[in-house]
């Protein structure tokens, strides 16, 4: 699957996270993460795409919570690990350094 297809799949995964289905803060987090992915997909140059994927990974780290269940607007460590691995796979497909 090409990078655009992987980004689309990752957006679906973000929107489907069980920990982000309850509150307005959860919806805000989903929107913020998906916006980062949109920006990565729409970057005109490889450097922009890679930078925006780095921003996505950084945002995932900021939204990770160690408590179970996570606080409103936060994701579990397992969800964060999956999202990060998927974003890093997209970076590899793109050839990011």
Detailed description of the structure:
The longest helix is centred in the middle third of the chain and has 19 residues, at 24-42. The chain is built from 4 helices and no strands. The protein has helices at residues 3-15, 24-42, 46-62, 77-94. With 97 residues, the chain is mainly alpha-helical. The model has no long low-confidence stretch (mean pLDDT 89). The chain has one domain (3-94). It is elongated, with a radius of gyration of 13 Å. The two termini are 20 Å apart. Helix 1 runs antiparallel to helix 2 (24-42), helix 1 (3-15) packs antiparallel against helix 4 and helix 2 (24-42) packs antiparallel against helix 3 (46-62).
């Amino acid at each position: 699957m090409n990078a655009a297809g992987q980004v689309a799949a990752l957006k679906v995964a973000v929107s489907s996270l069980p920990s982000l289905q309850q509150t307005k803060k959860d919806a805000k987090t989903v929107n913020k993460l998906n916006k980062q992915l949109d920006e990565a997909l729409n970057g005109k140059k490889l450097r922009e795409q890679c930078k925006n994927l780095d921003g996505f990974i950084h945002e995932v780290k900021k939204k990770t919570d160690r408590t179970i269940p996570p606080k409103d607007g936060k994701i579990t460590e397992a969800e964060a690990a999956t999202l990060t691995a998927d974003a890093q796979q997209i970076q590899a497909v793109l050839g990011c350094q």
